[in-house]
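User: Please predict the structure of the protein below. I'd like the answer in structure-token form so I can feed it into my own downstream comparison script.

Assistant: Understood. Taking the following sequence of 341 residues as input:
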Amino acid sequence: MATLYYEKDADPGLIGTRTVAVIGYGSQGHAHALNLSESGVDVRVGLREGSSSRAKAEEAGLRVLTVAEASAEADVIMILLPDTEQAAVYRSEIAPHLKAGDVLLFAHGFNIRFDLIDPPDDVDVAMVAPKGPGHLVRRTYTEGGGVPSLVAVAADPSGTAHALALSYAHAIGATRAGVLDTTFAEETETDLFGEQVVLCGGLTALVQAGYETLVGAGYQPESAYFECLHELKLIVDLMYEQGISGMRFSISDTAEYGDLTRGPRVINQAVREEMGRILGEIQDGTFAAEWVEENAKGRPRYKALRQAGLDHPIEAVGAELRAMMPFVTAGKQKIQDISGG
């Protein structure tokens, strides 16, 4: 069984005696920095010169420095930049300021798992990874709750890396909900697999293919949109709240019978074998190398595929229908305001 930690298992005094730099002020960065500050932690935000986030962080009452300045001041450095930017910023702005006994923290294991960042041997390396977007990490904290998180340790020369990670998790509210032990490899590989096969890649491909099948058979695009995309939220919410069996209990018997008998025909053995190949590409570093190379080339394939997605007919139909349903997007601006963009 997995080990779970709660507030009683964390020592808030550990992070309370350290100086913390949060590098980046995006979705996760703003939440970590504000939650830490309100938990009484000595925190500063490290941003690159000219960052558009500087004004937002300062308006929130946070002390803002350059990445290099923040790294030099702090003895705990949480790197919350995009995966593909972390290694370059680490080498030029963070590594020169690391001292024995410092702690490097991450919220995703990508750069450590695939050896893009190689910390010195006298620095602790750990992870605190909330399992939710930054606006939720922030909102639940202000409401007295928290978002479940993962913790992992990649290097522990001090012997206190795990306890420090738990203390940090406590300060951002995670121990209110529960913190799960993992490893950098497990978090990275399962996260990438989930994104590619289910949550993003598999889901969007399934929605688009279903839409194309119905429209290709002569049905109205609007009807296809409602059936293959709009109603998806209802099903996901039921699974989120009650699990798969709870969702099946809530839908009609006709829908459940179709689920049980036709679902395995869609996700058949060939699809499962392809899932295995995708997992293999994650585990052996093929995907990471491909993504790093794609960025080095200026992201030509990424940009082309993104544009193709924007140009898909389901987007135009969906935009028209959502304009008729303002309640669907009512919370979008609120989330943007909370997360600082």
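That's the full token string. The radius of gyration is 22 Å.
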